DNA sequence: TGCATATTTCGAGAACTATCGAATTATGTG
DNA sequence: CACATAATTCGATAGTTCTCGAAATATGCA
């Protein structure tokens, strides 16, 4: 992941509705959720949410697939991992002693 | 870390100069860098950078300490770790099989 | 085909963010 | 104290982002 990709991802996650949307989708992996159900759950007008979903999609954080009349959205966990690795690389800065506690804490899951 | 803290942190990191600033500071842990030297390195006017440093500081991502005429800035690695854990918690969503490859990849450092 | 449902795109207004010159504050030194 | 240096705050402008009503597009079904 390049710096510009990370920048775009951070921008996508720096808005309340979008962060909520993304987290909700992560919790609904791997089935995903239809756009309309997301809008209902998050209590946001469908067109507003559609704009946010577009931003998340352009940032690579979600994918969508049409299923008949419904468009099913999914979180892209691989992309989330890439974003975390981007942060972790900096975090370490070549010195493992900084990163070790991080890895330990992540091991919890 | 609460959702609102993460939101603020993502907002802080979603601007090019600020992301560059933060990464530069991480690479300069644990000594840190003076505000003026950051401005010179990043080729940004001192007052503009000062505004960005304020945003990073309010997001908890950097700390500062006056040393005579100089104000020394440092990245807050603990906070970065908290942000990553915030993401990782979602990533797992209670299912370890999703998180395992992530932990493995982070272990690289 | 006609109609209902699901979703997106368009467009305009409001709100927020970035930038930087100028002024200000804080500190160290002669 | 006067002066130089380091950094921040102020204020205006330009640019970007958010929101949502209305219109458009896509699909399924009778």
Can you count the beta strands of chain A? 3
Distance between the termini of chain A: 24 Å
Mean pLDDT of chain A: 88
Regions of chain A with pLDDT < 50 over 5+ consecutive residues? none
Q: What structural class results from the helix and strand content of chain A?
A: alpha+beta
Largest interface: A-B, 40 and 40 residues
For the largest beta-sheet of chain A, the strand count, sense and barrel status come to: 3 strands, antiparallel
CATH architectural label of chain A:
Orthogonal Bundle
Across the major sheet of chain A, the strand order is 1-3-2
CATH topology annotation of chain A: Arc Repressor Mutant, subunit A
Number of helices of chain A: 6
> What is the percent of helical residues of chain A?
55-70%
CATH class of chain A: Mainly Alpha
CATH superfamily caption of chain A: Winged helix-like DNA-binding domain superfamily/Winged helix DNA-binding domain
Radius of gyration of chain A: 16 Å
Give the assembly state of these chains: homodimer
Shape of chain A: elongated
- The number of domains of chain A is 1
Give the topology string of chain A: H per helix, E per strand.
HHEHHEEHH
Strand content of chain A: 5-15%
